[in-house]
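Quick one - first record:
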Amino acid sequence: MRIRRGLGVGATALISGVALVFPLAGISGAPGGIPWKSSVPFTETVFDSGTSESVTLSGTEALSLHVTGDVITGWTASLKATVHHTVGVGGTSGGSYKAKGTDTLTASFHPGPPTTPTTYQATFRLIPPGPPCRANDSPSPCFNPSTVLVPVTITLNADGSVGSVQVGHSN
């Protein structure tokens, strides 16, 4: 007795097997995908080297993440982070600070699901209270902006879409 399987059964089995092995290629977050955007409120304590004090910042970080790639060739994630309405209070002086700026960072992932949490070291300008220093200023206190780090940790789902986001260390 001979059993014949038609081309349809074999093709269906092959397609099903490929779908099980590579179920994630072409899902959201794959090449040509629409960037994920969100505004994330945060509170973070940073150190201002110019004034030698800790500053507690509160504000919003606007994030735009564009993921390209697939499980076969690997993934690239490009993050644009911008602080909005971010102000701080000096821990010693009680002075009012402002944080400003935008940072663009990139991460690469090996082939397979990109599910490892990735921390992007986003840096911004921290503007202290008081006048900025000028070339011919008298020795009175003046302070220039310094650079501070407000990290963003993003975990992607297996298909390259955003699973979770944390801004700063303290959230």
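second record:
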Amino acid sequence: MIILRFLWLNYSNYQTGDISNGIPGIKHWLDTDRYTWGAEKLLIGKHLIGRQIQFIGYILVIAFTKLLGLPIGSVVIIQMGFAILSAFALYDIAIRISKSKIAGVTAMALYLCNPFIVSWHMYILTESLYTSFVILSLWCLIKSLHTKKLKDFAYSIPVLIMTMLIRPNGWILLPVWLILLISSLPKQSKWKFIFSGAVVITFVTSMATFTLFERSIQITTPVNNLQQGITVWGHEELNLDMPQDKFVDNFTWTDGIRYVLFHPGPSVKLASYRMGYTLIHIRPYHSTKYKLRVLSWVLPAYILSFIGLFAYRKDKKTLIAIAYILAHLFVIAVSYAEHDSRFDIYILPIFYLFAGLGAYKALKYIKSKLLTSL
């Protein structure tokens, strides 16, 4: 029933566009040309340029379909297929934590049937496939750390790499993975802390040293966004007033660290606003009807998520999932929240994982109370 509902929502979106842009058919948006043009360039032997390099994983998927002579709609089919596959991964994670199918089915249903997530499957954009690979990489990591089998680690690595290649948001998962792997080793906590610190330092240094990474970060103008107080991209009315530091170079992203150190209060406030807009999934400029629809999906899920998080707070698999959420929120904190809520859906399915756990615990509690009262 869940998958049928998922397929129906996508069919309806294709026929009418009723849960997205109101236009029937395959959807194109601001960045679509960047990906399709990049795919065409690869097929004729040309190099990717600018921000295309950041999305090479997604561009390769499009190039592969073009190489096979398939229509652009085949990309949508691939995205829907991986969405279903990742839903089963979410189901499996929930069962591994709670030992309950109720938790798994609830998480799966919330993920596959949320129209605000489903709407992105019909777009030739990275959002759908990236969200699926975030879930799949999380499942691979949890399974690998649980089984500690070499074969599980072996297929986990390509999944992580693909996640990182689809969108630059996934780069942050590399140090997260390494730190979690270090934490799982049978070593003294002091050495785990030292090695984890080394991972962070190496990652930051690499981002600042290697030209490819440095340019990829700087092209998003993070320091300029910081000084301008941008909370939601494209909406200056939501900008915060920030201290202007003439000694900070807006064209060197590492100067952002210096800015934060000298202006910690305003920087933390800005980061909080960015993360807040992302977590609530609505913006001041949205209509009241839209806000109510979104909140009807988000608020109950957050309540159940809190229950699930509290109930399974000591489970290592829960902590790994939390690390994924925090990593993505960190990326938003140092960049901006998206005007169309695209960045929001990357972590919403993980909240749905916790909501599934919370639903199971809530039902179990209600059942025990009813049996006690009889």
